Amino acid sequence: MSTVQILENVQNFMNRSHGHFIHGKTVQNTHESRINIINPATEQRVATIADADQATVDQAVKSAHDAFVNAWASVSPYERSLKLNKLADLVEQHSEELAQLETLTSGKLIMISRHLEVAQTVIFLRHFASCATKIHGQTIQPSLPSMQGEKYTAVTLRQPVGVVAGIIPWNFSLMIGAWKIGSALTTGCTIVVKPSEFTSLSLLRLAELALKAGIPAGVINVVTGTGKTGQYLIDSPLVKKISFTGSVPTGISIGKQAMHNDLKRVSLELGGKNAAAILPDVSIDEILPLLIQSTFVHQGQVCAAPERFFVHQSKYDEFVEKAAQILKQLKIGSPLDESVVFGPLSNQPHFEKVKHYLKMAQDQIITGGHVIDTQGYFVEPTLVKVENIEDPLFIEETFGPIVTVIPFENEVELISMMNHSRFGLSASIWSNDLSKVFRLIPQIEAGSIWVNMHTFLDPAVPFGGVKASGVGREFSDAFIDDYTELKSVMIRY
Ligand code: NDP
Questions:
Q1: Are 250 and 384 in a shared domain?
Q2: Which atom of ligand 1 is nearest to the CA of 250?
């Protein structure tokens, strides 16, 4: 294990004066201001990107619309599938380059960039490729009796909605970008992607690879910029659907804006305050390694990762002591060091937010709780005890490596505390008592529930939140409804 050397083509790519990727070309609009891309491990600037204004967004949307009407519409589902698979091949071939770009801009450990972000990008693109040839309507026997002896029948068609705007957060830019791109392209839509201003580089590179994969110019466009750029996209009349992943406040504001734009379609994958319930029958030694890994992956900046541990009172002391021991031993350091297991937070505003929560937690800390006195946005993985379920640390999403732990006495109390949240993205139950597990599952308010595992996404399994954690579902074939219109046709003969 060693510290990774930055590839020459990664260095060259970062040194470029980046523009937007519109209609198969880099577009530089020189009047636009520039945004610095900071490496969160060093606080050094590694690149700059452009901050798209209204005219640039209009240009990108027009390109996507032209490509929808003139190019992508005539590409058969089979060819769409081939091209998405070709893109997956190219991502695989350029995996180290893409992994390094992600690590340098998001602070993600290089091992996570390689084996989770880039590897999952390939897997998801292949899944979406396989869906292109499986989009279908129904044949329906009409239910009303024929008036004059004529016959009639009905069919439904699924048609692409048109131009999609994909708005992406900073935690897994490439992979979440690929979810939106794959969903759009396989259903016959075209897309304009707006990555987070902190982590735009990997998606700019992916768009170049898509052109090499034979995906026609304009089918995938990338505009970089701030939240304002996202707002221009939502207001654009040629954009027919918004697919957003990000925080609850931004999601609510986007939802309102979309409704004000003639009820524009919108799907929202938002935040969580996810619960992990540790029942009395489990061995703490057996579950802790996987639970800790699932919780602190990418420094806890994972929407589905747990932030609230509920431990049966008979196991609480043992759990707290052993979890603290493991957390103290995690090697913290440079995300480019392959032996490190805990890196920096992804950006300065988020670092400030997490520091605020650490300060709030000072009297309740079991382990961790400190900012690390070094260059970069480093804090310790932190476990916090909570006695009152109205405690803001129990209620608010920190989206960082701060996890609360609370004991419970019985199932009724457990369910009531787990559901005491505006969020409902994911939850897990750790137990080998299957009848108890099946009794609990329907009572938990969450879109995904894992048993003896957590934070594990599979393209074959639908994913999305209930309550304030979102609207709509990604993956499996559940996403198809969101990217297509259902048209009903009745035929008399
Ligand atoms: P934000 O909501 O702050 O931003 C998400 C994206 O929206 C960014 O590209 C951002 O641009 C853009 N944006 C910000 N304001 C607006 C606006 N008014 N209109 C349109 N676009 C806007 O989320 P973060 O990037 O901070 O990501 C963290 C959040 O994402 C957490 O809450 C996390 O739980 C959630 N998340 C949910 C996932 C899920 O699948 N449910 C998966 C991953 C993350 P810019 O970055 O330039 O501000």
A1: no
A2: 2
